[in-house]
Amino acid sequence: MKEIAPGIYIETGYHGVTLGAVNWPHGLLLIDSPSQPEDVRSWRAALLSLGGGVNRLLIYLDAHADRTLGGRGMECTLVASEETANAFHGRPGSMKGYQTETGADWQQYPRTGNLRWAPPEITFSDRLIVYWNTSPMILAHHPGPSRGAIWAEFPEQKVIFIGDAVLAKQPPFLGDADIPLWQEQLNHLNTKKYQDYLIVNGREGLIPHDCISAQKQFLRKVSRGLERLAKRENPAEKTESLIDNLLKDLNFDRKYEEQYQQRLQHGLYQCYTNNYLPAKEDESGK
Q1: Domain extents for the chain?
Q2: What is the radius of gyration, based on Cα positions, of the chain?
Q3: Under CATH, which number does the domain 2-208 receive?
Q4: Which run of H or E residues covers position 180?
Q5: Are 190 and 212 within 8 A, CB to CB?
Q6: What residues contact 132, with CB distance under 8 A and at least 6 apart?
Q7: How crowded is residue 106: how many other Cβ atoms within 10 Å of its Cβ?
Q8: What contacts 206, CB < 8 A, 6 or more positions away?
Q9: Which of 158, 277, 261, 248 is nearest to 206 (CA)?
Q10: How many CB atoms lie within 10 A of CB 206?
Q11: Distance in angstroms (rounded) separating the CA atoms of residues 79 and 55
């Protein structure tokens, strides 16, 4: 666990997720959870060393299984956007019914199959401000990577947790993405307001600001590729042809290549189907 600002800690030692912990007088604010039961137990034990108040809030930065699967084991009050709560309503009760291979990290560990979801108990539509200290934590809805994505901002400490909005050394998850909206969020993050902030992404920890521009460039490449396929009225299966070209520009550990190919295969297919695939004419020809 590393303290990156007074009372604000991150943990990057658990597979597939960066965790946040904020030690304030009223209690602990926790950002995301590990997905594996043994990691949940380890993280809870590590948090005991922080002391602080007795209350705990666990914030889901979005609905992705990598950061929400361990939520029940954290035994905290759960907070997320309304859109993230809606995503839980459409899921099976446990991971047994969640079989699609998405290139997610939790799917590399079959023992997660019996775990059950813990939906958020406190939700908000646009913005929630938490005063557990003299300075606030601002939770704000920033859709794009997914419908329910939020950022956790600490303006006095100049720290912001952005989830999967920017990934530095791995491809993003595109299955629930709205790319134009995502690009708007990145433009906002790239403004003068945040130039002195420490930026924490949801999988790799602290990232340099130039990763924002690199993520924008990657999304432009995705968008151009999908637009070309749509213009030619190609079926969604043709999105696989984009994978190699997208991966070649990423600097990642090659042991994850098969996983990242799977991630892009699933994400491009879903993104194209949801946002780019030409609508079929109905029987009336309309």
Answers
A1: 2-208
A2: 19
A3: 3.60.15.10
A4: helix 179-189
A5: yes
A6: 24, 25, 26, 27, 29, 53, 55
A7: 26
A8: 4, 10, 198, 199, 200
A9: 158
A10: 15
A11: 13
For residue 162, the tally of other CB atoms under 10 A from its CB is 26
**What b/e string do you get for 123-133 counting C-beta neighbours within 10 Å, with b at 16 or more?**
bbeeebebebb
In order, the DSSP letters of 137-152 are: EEEEE--SSSTT-EEE
- Contacts with 150 (C-beta within 8 Å, 6 or more apart), sequence order: 59, 61, 62, 80, 81, 84, 139, 140, 141, 142, 163
Whole-angstrom CA distances from 105 to 17, 68, 276 are: 9, 12, 27
- Say which amino acid occupies 159: V
- Give me the sign of the Cα torsion angle 246, 101, 35, 151: positive
The whole-angstrom separation of Cα 18 and Cα 20 is 7
- pTM > 0.70: yes
Per-residue pLDDT of the chain (286 residues; tens, 9 = 90+): 999 999 999 999 998 899 999 999 889 999 999 988 899 999 999 998 887 777 899 999 999 989 998 999 999 999 999 999 999 887 765 555 455 677 677 677 766 556 777 889 999 999 999 999 889 999 999 999 999 999 999 999 999 999 999 999 999 999 999 999 999 999 999 999 999 999 999 999 999 999 999 999 999 999 999 999 999 999 999 999 999 999 998 988 888 899 999 999 999 999 999 998 765 433 344 4
Q: How far apart are CA 19 and CA 22, in angstroms?
A: 10
